[in-house]
Amino acid sequence: MNIAVILAAGKGKRFGQAKQFVLIKDKPVIIYSLEKFNQSELIDRIVVVTTKNKVAHVQQLIKTYHLSKITDIIVGGKERQDSIFNALKILPDTGYVAIHDSARPLFNPDLIAQGFKQVKKHQACIPVLPVADTIKQVKLNKIVQTLDRADLYYAQTPQFFSLKLIKKAYHKAYQEKYYATDDAGLVERTRQKIYAITGHKQNIKITEPSDLDLIENYL
User: Fold this and answer.
1) Where exactly are the structural domains of the chain?
2) What pTM was computed for the model?
3) What is the DSSP string of the chain?
4) What does the pLDDT look like over 201-216, one tens digit per residue?
5) How confident is the model at residue 18 (pLDDT cuts 50, 70, 90)?
6) What's the rounded Cα separation, in Å, for the pair 7 and 118?
7) What is the pLDDT of residues 151-165, one digit of tens each?
8) 108: Cβ–Cβ under 8 A, 6 or more apart, which residues?
C-alpha cells in the first residue's frame, strides 16, 4: 500500500496566518497538493494532519474538491515531528509512505512516481536540489568557514519511506528526545542510506507572504 501523509498543522507564526489555507487563484494552498496525490494512480490512501480548529474546514474541502482518497484527518502536535508521528500511529507497519508539506503546492506530480519507484529499492528516498549560492558558516556575526557547496543540497518534500523504517526512526528519535527539521533527518540516525532524486526549482516552500506572488506567477 502507498500512503500519502499531508502536513497542514502549521500555525503560520512567521507568516501571520495558516498559510496552507490561504487562497491562490481562489483555491486553498493545501488543495494544490491534495489534488495531485488524489489523482495519482499510485496512491491508495491519503491522511491529512491539521490543527483541531481546522478539522471541520478540511472536511468541507474534501467534499468541495471531491478528494475521495482521504481516509483520515488527524490533529497535529506541538511540533512538525509530533504531527507526523500522530499520523504514523494509525498507519500499518508495512507498505510505503510519502510525507509532504502542504506549504509546497507546486511540486511536480512526477515526483510521486519517481519517489515510490526508488523507495521500493532503497527504503528511503527524498528529492533534493544543489545549492547554487556560496554557503558560509557564521557564529556571533563572524565567518567561521566557507562550506563546499559541491556537496550541499536543499531537501524538499514529498519524502518517501518504507513504513517499517520511518516508524523505527520516529521511535528512536523519541527515545533519544531528538527533533529534526525533516523526516529524512530522523532516518539518517538509523544509519539507513537515503537515495536522492532530483527535485524541482518550482517546488518552493511558502514561508513569507511574498512567496504567494511567486507561486501565483508560476501557476
Assistant:
1) 2-218
2) 0.94
3) -EEEEEEE----TTTSS-GGGSEETTEEHHHHHHHHHHH-TT--EEEEEE-GGGHHHHHHHHHHTT-TTEEEEEE--SSHHHHHHHHHTTS-SSSEEEEEETT-TT--THHHHHHHHHHHHHSEEEEEEE--S-EEEEETTEEEEEE-GGG-EEE-S-EEEEHHHHHHHHHHHHHTT---SSHHHHHHTTT---EEEE--TT-PPP-STHHHHHHHHH-
4) 999 999 888 888 899 9
5) confident
6) 22
7) 999 999 999 999 999
8) 200, 202, 203
Residue range 2-218, CATH number: 3.90.550.10
Burial grade of 16 (CB within 10 A; 0-12, 13-18, 19 or more): exposed
Mean pLDDT of 79-104: 96
